[in-house]
Specification:
The complex is a heterotrimer.
Chain A (H helix, E strand, L loop, with lengths): L20 H39 L5 H5 L13 H32 L3 H15 L2 H13 L7 H26 L2 H9 L4 H12 L1 H16 L3 H4 L19 H9 L4 H29 L7
Helix pairs in contact in A: 1-12, 3-4, 3-6, 3-9, 3-11, 4-6, 5-6, 6-9, 7-8, 9-12, 11-12
Chain B lengths: L2 E10 L2 E11 L4 E5 L6 H8 L9 E9 L2 E2 L7 H5 L2 E4 L11 H11 L6 H13 L3 H4 L12 H13 L5 E5 L7 H14 L4 E5 L3 H7 L2 E6 L2 E7 H6 L4 H7 L5
Parallel strand pairs in B: 3-8, 3-9, 6-7, 7-8
Antiparallel strand pairs in B: 1-2, 1-4, 4-5, 9-10
Helix pairs in contact in B: 3-4, 3-6, 4-6, 6-7
Chain C lengths: L7 H14 L5 H39 L9 E2 L4 E2 L2 H32 L5 H13 L2 H28 L14 H25 L3 H9 L4 H30 L2 H6 L18 H8 L7 H27 L14
Antiparallel strand pairs in C: 1-2
Classes of the chains: A mainly alpha, B alpha/beta, C mainly alpha.
Chain lengths: 299, 250, 331
């Protein structure tokens, strides 16, 4: 039983789209959808590629040895570098990792291996809360907690702020990866008589190592690019590192300060510093893809 | 008008799934496709309404003539082909965010077959044809997800019938159903064959024996044997067919 | 099998502990659990610590101004009157501007990635989207300040004024830096988040529903409209709220292009302004202990609360938001 279309609409070939207004609109809407999707995707891609290429072109010429090894020259003079900012970033990320890695990792272990009740739901919620807080708030926290009582900006306060920022990044990635370790591994280990702690430390974590390391690297790269929390903690400087209770410079801070500068030398160095950051995220993006490609990405 | 298939080949990526299939599917009757898992019967059926190529990296070549028109001709739009062929899947797949009424009507509505009150008639007629009307006529606005498995499958059948197809393709329609629902769907198929050309993929030989006029046996992507159901099951011509039917492999 | 190499003392301690803890657990387990518990509690302490610090250090201005903090017009250390009305205005304007443009673009791009993108391209494009999400805020700010703002003042704003100047939004003095610049930068910054959440949500719609519609002769758009979008709708809304939260808390890029000066209130997007987050970044250097400091902290408390609400709302709508993906933190 087939419905018979009116003679004026009956296509000569039964498998052709009829040419009624309804069908013209259908095909038009479909074409519009495709066009819109393609254009918007192209926009997003082009914007990013343009940004990355522009910044690289502007900054690459100024990435030389002195950039990495010298201190900023007197304002207006050419030459000099931002070695202290690179050094500072490394120190701050190191300090941050002392807090971020253990707290993040063990929180992940707790969420993955231990709790299933309301408390672990609460912990997971808190980790998500932590993840969503704008990073300047962490700066405020460290400012009140450390800078004000010690009457001065310090690398320590910056490290603390960055460290807390690291916690949820490490925790979420590590938890995901730990959960993917097959339950059979744990059961086999326990059945052989190993304690739970031994099972976790010597069986589960090693199985998840690449994912955990990826999460840590990701977190470190993320905080390396953070500026706002350092404004009121590490504060920045133009000298080499002098002590953990002294202000210290950082790459994003230096970029921020130099952006405003009237001197082209420093603008160039700001671009160059941005190239360093972009390369950093490029490398970590690759690392993440490579390490988690098997089970995370769905195309 | 029957369906004629000539030199049909199909691939998933590099892997060939159908080899030079040639068959004629008789008009207004039930044709069953049987064979072990992975033999290509589902792939074949999906080639008839050009659904096979919707899978990633899948493609098919050959000729499939419906009403003497080769639907694989380059000028043919697959969307226009599918409009004339109804398909029922192994897992009932009603649209969960739409009501029962909307599920049945959607094919007709999208294809511009009717609107307004005429749609109501189509919905009722399709649901009656699918033997579901009495069970749902008072709750047409409820979500389709609220129905039982057997009811959902009949809803999917109604949805396919609503677009007034020339052919009805069913890919293991009863696999996910309980025995009673299976029986209801089989009765339905026996009724439908008077109006539609029905092709049923099944892994259940008894089912083929019950409902099919013609049966085709597939193995490793090739059509081994096809003929009247009684003939196939009592006097199979090929040894592979006989082996499968007598359960030497499954 | 593990041998028993315990001494009597350890055995005794173990049995004592297992009696106390009601289970057959060993000392190493207890230690490990203790260390884990400690770090978990420290993590929790940091969340609560932040909240506590924000509240308690805001008390002076909370007590002094109450709700007027939200309506006072400026940070005025001379007269010791503090208020964030213009900051709230700037925050809302820039964030909603960003949402208005980023949502359609983001949805369209997500649809492209899910439905129309040729398979070989997909990994590369996803990678590019993730990169966009990971670029530090200060780099966006650098580009915005050095490239986009000058372009706006020379080309962009005059063009807008010429063709759309009848709208009050584009009727005003050109500054380059300002609300429009901040809004535009935010569009770029929240775009990848909307794209990635929308895409993930759309991918969870089962293929069976797409096939059901395709088999009825539906076009690609009809499949998207009737199979994918109904199922993905809730998650997409969650993603939008998440992106809104991100925009509300974004600090560096906004600070660098928004001008950080209040101008006389008007509808013009060309005006400079500031946001709650940019106020904090700009003013902390001047902050003297007392009311000024308290006002800054209270501003931080406001930012904390609104982003918290946005994140909780989003979380209710989308589970596993951004899990394992780069992106999600504001700078």
């Amino acid at each position: 039983m087939s419905s018979t279309p009116k003679a004026s609409e009956r296509p000569t070939n039964p498998f052709q789209m009829p040419s009624t207004a309804h069908h013209v609109i259908r095909q038009f809407s479909n074409a519009l959808c495709i066009a819109f999707a393609v254009l918007t995707a192209a926009f997003a891609i082009i914007v990013l590629l343009y940004l990355i290429i522009y910044i690289t072109l502007q900054g690459l010429p100024f990435l030389n040895l002195s950039f990495f090894t010298e201190l900023p020259g007197a304002f207006g003079s050419s030459g000099g570098g931002i070695g202290e900012a690179i050094q500072g970033t490394l120190i701050l990320v190191g300090l941050a990792s002392v807090i971020g890695i253990p707290l993040g990792l063990f929180t992940a272990i707790y969420l993955s291996e231990f709790g299933t009740g309301w408390f672990s739901q609460a912990v997971r919620f808190m980790v998500d809360v932590l993840n969503g807080i704008p990073t300047i708030i962490f700066g405020l926290f460290a400012w009140v907690l450390i800078v004000i009582p010690t009457h001065g900006f310090s690398a320590l306060s910056g490290g603390v702020a960055l460290g807390i920022i690291m916690i949820p990044i490490v925790a979420r990635t590590a938890e995901d990866v730990l959960r993917l370790v097959p339950q059979e591994l744990r059961e086999a280990s326990l059945a052989l008589g190993a304690t739970q702690s031994r099972t976790i430390l010597q069986v589960v974590i090693p199985a998840a190592t690449s994912g955990i390391v990826t999460g840590i690297v990701l977190a470190m790269a993320r905080v390396a690019g953070e500026t706002a929390p350092l404004l009121m903690t590490a504060f920045g400087s133009t000298f080499w590192f002098t002590g953990v209770m002294q202000p210290v410079d950082a790459l994003p801070l230096r970029i921020f300060v130099f952006t405003d500068s009237p001197y082209p030398v420093q603008i160039n160095q700001a671009y160059a510093g941005s190239v360093v950051l972009v390369v950093l995220i490029l490398l970590t993006s690759f690392a993440v893809r490579w390490a988690t490609g098997g089970f995370k990405r769905r195309f | 008008m029957s369906i004629q298939v000539y030199h049909l080949n199909a691939w998933y990526g590099r892997k060939q799934a159908l080899y030079d299939i040639q068959m004629t599917i008789p008009f207004r009757s039930v044709t069953a496709l049987i064979g072990p898992s992975g033999c290509g019967k589902s792939t074949f059926v999906r080639c008839i309404n050009r659904m096979h190529e919707e899978l990633p990296n899948a493609h098919a070549e050959g000729e499939v003539l419906i009403e003497n028109t080769n639907i694989y001709a380059s000028a043919i739009n697959p969307i226009a082909v599918r409009r004339h062929i109804g398909m029922v899947f192994q897992q009932p797949n009603p649209l969960p965010h739409y009501s029962i009424w909307e599920n049945v009507a959607i094919g007709a509505r999208l294809n511009g077959l009717a609107s307004g009150k005429a749609l109501n008639e189509i919905v009722e007629r399709s649901l009656r044809e699918a033997a579901l009307w009495n069970e749902v006529k008072d709750r047409l606005t409820l979500s389709a997800a609220a129905l039982s498995g057997g009811q959902q499958q009949r809803l999917c059948i109604a949805r396919a019938l609503a677009i007034a197809p020339k052919v009805l393709l069913m890919d293991e329609p009863c696999s996910a159903l309980d025995p009673i629902s299976t029986m209801q769907v089989e009765e339905l198929i026996m009724k439908l064959k008077h109006e539609y050309t029905v092709v049923v993929v099944t892994h259940n030989m008894q089912q083929a024996g019950r409902i099919a006029d013609t049966t085709a046996f597939f193995l490793h992507g090739k059509l081994i044997e096809m003929g009247e159901t009684k003939q196939i099951f009592s006097h199979p011509q090929r040894r592979e067919t006989e082996d499968y039917i007598t359960g030497r492999f499954s | 099998m593990q041998g028993k190499i315990a001494t009597t003392g350890e055995e005794g301690l173990r049995s004592l502990l297992s009696t106390l803890t009601g289970g057959n657990r060993r000392l190493s387990d207890i230690l490990f659990q203790g260390v884990t518990a400690l770090f978990v509690l420290l993590t929790l302490a940091s969340v609560f610590g932040i909240a506590w610090v924000l509240v308690s250090y805001s008390l002076p201005t909370l007590a002094t101004f109450g709700w007027h903090f939200l309506t006072n017009q400026a940070f005025d250390p001379v007269h010791n009157i503090y208020g964030v009305a213009p900051a709230i205005f700037g925050t809302l304007v820039t964030s909603f501007f960003a949402i208005i443009f980023a949502v359609p673009i983001g949805l369209g791009a997500a649809i492209f990635l899910v439905e129309f993108c040729p398979r070989p391209l997909r990994p590369a494009l996803s990678f590019i989207m993730d990169m966009l999400a990971a670029v530090p805020s200060v780099v966006y700010g650098l580009w915005g300040f050095l490239v986009m703002a000058p372009w706006l003042i020379s080309t962009g704003e005059p063009w807008l004024h010429r063709y759309l100047g009848f709208l009050p939004f584009f009727d005003g003095q050109y500054h380059g830096l300002g609300l429009l610049a901040a809004g535009m930068i935010l569009v770029i910054m929240i775009l990848p988040l909307i794209i990635s959440v929308s895409r993930e949500v759309m991918l969870t719609v089962p293929r069976s529903q797409r096939e059901a519609l395709l088999a009825l002769g539906a076009t690609r758009w009809e499949v998207i409209r009737h199979a994918i979008l109904p199922g993905a709708r809730i998650g997409i809304v969650g993603g939008i709220i998440l992106a809104l939260g991100r925009a509300l808390g974004e600090t560096m890029a906004v600070t660098m292009v928004i001008g950080n000066q209040a101008t006389a209130p008007s509808w013009s997007l060309f005006n400079t302004g500031y946001t709650l987050a940019s106020v904090i970044a700009n003013q902390f250097g001047e902050a003297t202990p007392g009311l000024f400091l308290s006002a800054l902290i209270e501003t931080g408390l406001l930012v904390f609360i609104i982003t918290l609400i946005a994140n909780i709302l989003a979380r209710l709508l989308v589970s596993h938001v951004g899990r394992g993906r780069i992106g999600g933190l504001a700078a």
